[in-house]
Amino acid sequence: MDGLIAASREFFREPLEEKRAYSNLIGGKQWQLEGYGNDPVKTQDQIMDWSDRLHLRVEPEDERNLDRWPGHPESFRGLLHEYTASCKRVKDGILRAMARLLELGEDDGILNQFGDKGTTYARFNYYPACPRPDLVLGIRPHSDVCVLTLLLMDEHVAGLQVLRDGTWYRVPPVRDHTLLVNVGVSLEIMSNGVFWGPVHRVVTNSEKERTSLAMFYSTDLEKEVEPIAELLGEKQPARYRKIKFRNFVAEHYEYFSKRERVIESLKI
Ligand SMILES: O=C(O)CCC(=O)C(=O)O
Ligand SMILES: [Fe+2]
Hints:
alpha+beta, six-stranded antiparallel sheet
């Protein structure tokens, strides 16, 4: 873990021209999810996040776009490959335990909602020290659109905050490779609202830089995300409309740029 974080820092510290070789803008213009760079620009007055990002599809393994994976430092690709395999085991264990909490008939009741080609993205976030933390956020308020996120936070510098009942709560940094497990809004829909995808943000720091690595576990892009049938009944009607995951992601970015949550539009 330390090696991978150190390798990602090394990448982020390289000159911009080096990093642009892995850009998320095709031909310098058309935005795609994967690669190095920021969010899509949807409106002229959109305030961007104070962060540098590298977003890579790590699963399915045979669909990796290795041309987006930094070749420097040389250890990067091997370390990310190993980290992906370890995190998969953790994610499977957590989702099986959550299926039991929902009292689903089988432990794989959530895992088998992912479809044939569930996808995992690794997102490296690098937040440089910011001279005016009062003016800009590291990441604006959002909920993760995936099923589950495993977040490896900076061991020394705080920044993540979670919204609950109108108050922002600071998440302290933790040592010893602790992972923070976050529910994404896909799981909010699947669980018919039993679990919910909290709104969170990252504040900037005037003196210290910060890094984090999020692993986002999502369903197949062609799969419809919907409440699990077994959880529904006469007394438990569906609370969310279903949506194809591909459209959910597209809409997430539309709403995000307007500072709204896409899931609100799916509530019945
Ligand atoms: O940097 C963090 O602690 C959180 C990152 C995050 O929320 C995200 O990448 O979606
Ligand atoms: Fe997030």
